[in-house]
Amino acid sequence: MSGDTNAVQGGRRISAHAVCAAIRDDIVSGAYQPGSRLTEELLARRYGVSRVPVREALRTLESEGFVTTRRHAGACVAQPSEREAADLLDIRALLEPLGAERAAQRRTEAHLKVLRGLVRLGRERAQGGRLGELRPLGDWFHETLAQASGSPSLAALLVQLRRKTAWVYAAAPGPRPAPLEGAVRPDPAARAMESWAEHGALVDAVALGDADRARALATVHTERALSEFRLRRPIPVRTSKHSVNTASGRN
């Protein structure tokens, strides 16, 4: 194989970008816990590629904050502090409304077509109680909205912030805190319907080119979404300086 950042798998070339996305998805899903080692050899075996694209992927993930390099341990899954976790929410609260405002000013008809289609699908899934299918639709919606901002730098930041927030605030093991006496637990289906109604109103504002309304609607939507993260605990961070949990070979 040549020394570029592509690998051959099943007769087709696998890019370092694809390997990076696979490792990132496994980090976000919890397959690799914070602090666990990420060895090139094991990762190459797991994803069926050479160590060259794995090495490139780890460098990219380090620049994104998902991976850190430790002396004598090599690449490991990062261990964000609670302060860093809180900062992620504050940054998202600032940037997502800006992205919506820019989208109202710069969106194309192609963006609107995709956004409207996703809102239609999201509402259908929510009404049908198919809540497990909403997360990827929501991710697609927000990525498209970010791209509609017309700013590749802003879009990349927004996508990365959403990934990192989902990862850092992944549900911690153990029971959730009991609600305060008299408090009513929100109905997931009702909240999903409300969320996709907010998405629809936001698309309408973007379609009309109403930047102020798009920003205001995005602010409300973002604050509601981030308040749910604030009720969770960030993923636990370890205090040990020793390496832990070598990457497994889960398929």
TrEMBL record:
The keyword DNA-binding applies. The keyword Transcription regulation applies. Pfam families: FCD (PF07729), GntR (PF00392). Keywords: DNA-binding, Transcription, Transcription regulation. Gene3D superfamilies: GntR ligand-binding domain-like, Winged helix-like DNA-binding domain superfamily/Winged helix DNA-binding domain. Residues 13-80 form the HTH gntR-type domain. It comes from Streptomyces javensis. This is GntR family transcriptional regulator. The lineage of its organism: Bacteria, Bacillati, Actinomycetota, Actinomycetes, Kitasatosporales.
